[in-house]
Each structure stands twice: as structure tokens, then as C-alpha cells.
Amino acid sequence: MINKIIGLWLLPWFCLAGQLPDASLVPGGIAILPVGDGTKPAPKVFYHGNRVLVAEHDGEWQALVGIPLSAPLGSHGIDIERDGASSRLDFNVADKAYPEQRLTIQNKRMVDEMTPEDLKRIEAEKIEMARIKDTWSERDADTSFTAPVDGRLSSLFGLKRFFNEAPRQPHNGLDIAAGTGTAINAPAAATVIGAGNYFFNGNTVFLDHGQGLISAYLHMSRISVKIGQQLKAGDRLGDVGATGRVTGPHLHWIVYLNKETVDPALFIGADIPRLAARNQAEHK
Ligand code: ZN
Predict the structure, then answer these.
(1) Measured in angstroms, how far is the CA atom of residue 139 from the centroid of ligand 1?
(2) Centroid of ligand 1 to alpha carbon of 48 (angstroms)
(3) pLDDT digits (tens, 9 = 90+) for 46-83
(4) pTM
């Protein structure tokens, strides 16, 4: 009986400490690579010169490498620094056929005409957001994520979009649709490192989960946190909305690893069937 109680008490803690995202060795995916035994200090790992998240798992240090959507297929490598020595570990990036979406826009005026003031604002915001997503904090990263919104999957990461046959940027996040006012909760422990209103993205919050694992929440109707605030997993950071340039209320959720956008679904594999089931219900 006592063992049972202790077991139940230990279980959530153990799961939180050990849960890594799913590995996926494709552009926009995550390589999870063993980089040494779990003794401290942890090795330092670099990919294209950028620091890489290193987490302890099952007595070993694992590097979580964000692979850019634009990555060439084939051999890639990380550099590992430990005890004054440096070594290289190679891994292979395979192809992934992300779905395509082709839209024909008849009316050219549907493309927003922007004033010089708008363009100035957009440029300044681009620089500010790049600075935020480049944040590196040395603490242990919390990689145990749960879905930030209880909604339905409305657009997947990596979708290749074409407007009138012209390629646009691929979809760099995961869209979860839910009504305006639906709670958005921190998927894991984090520090708020950005909170503001942006031209395209609307009300946006950026969270730092440690070691370059950054998440962003776009188009919010309401922001209920402040920069510098510490959040526990599940703390509410605001509400779903349709601010910025969008057609309906949804969360555009971005996850960055070593400054690259990766597929957020890899972090919430356990939640995906539940969210996907909502899509089925909606389409009946
Ligand atoms: Zn989106």
C-alpha cells in the first residue's frame, strides 16, 4: 500500500523529468542524439555555430537539434565540446513531403496595401522578434509539453502555400482553432520574454523554456502575463483571438530550437489524437 502511494506520487515527477519530444530526422524536425554519459558538467553542443539544447535522459545527455525547414537533405553534423576536447557527430536528414495548399486570389486588392509607416513598423518588429527568439538561457530546459489550447488542428506545420502559383513562406507553426476567449496555457515551465502587439501577428507572447527552446503564441485576443513573469506548466498566458492578419480565431503556435522553427506537434504527440478527433467531429 505504501509502495503504491509512493509510486503514484513519484510517477508525475518522473514523467515530467524524462519526457522528450519525438525525434524526426527531416527538415522542420528534431534530431535527438546521444552526446555523452549523464555526469556533470553537460557537454556543450553546436549546430551551424548555434548552441543546442542538451537534456539528461535515462542517464545520458541527449542533444535536441532543431533542423531548419530549409535544410538540405543528406549528412549534417553537430560539434560536441567536453573536457576540453571537441568531437563531431553526424546524422542524416531525409525528405518529407509536406502537403501543399494552392489558393487562387482573383481580386488583387485582397493583398493589403501597406503605408510607409506600416512598412517601418513591420521592419522594426521583425528585428525585435528575431532578438527575442535568439534568447539563450543556461538553465535546464523543460521539454515536457502539453497542448497549450484545447481546440482542433486547423493547419499543420510545414504546409507549402502558393498564392496564384507563387510560393509563399511555408507554414512555420501549428494552428489550433478554438473560440475567442478560450484559455491558452503554458505548455511547460517558462519565463515570459516577449509580450506585445505586432502588425501581422497581433497580440503575441514569447516563452523561454530554457536553452534555446522558445515558444510563441500569436493572434491572441487578450494577454494576461508580463515580461519577466515565471510560469508553471498549465498557467494561463492569455486567450485565443483573431488579432493581426488572420481570417478567424485560432492560435498560431511556433516552437523554436537553436533559433529554428520546428514542428510543434513533435512536442505534444500524446495530445495530437485528441485534438485531431475534434477535426473529425467538426466535419461530420
Ligand atoms: Zn498559422
Answers:
(1) 30
(2) 27
(3) 999 999 999 999 999 999 999 999 999 999 999 999 98
(4) 0.90
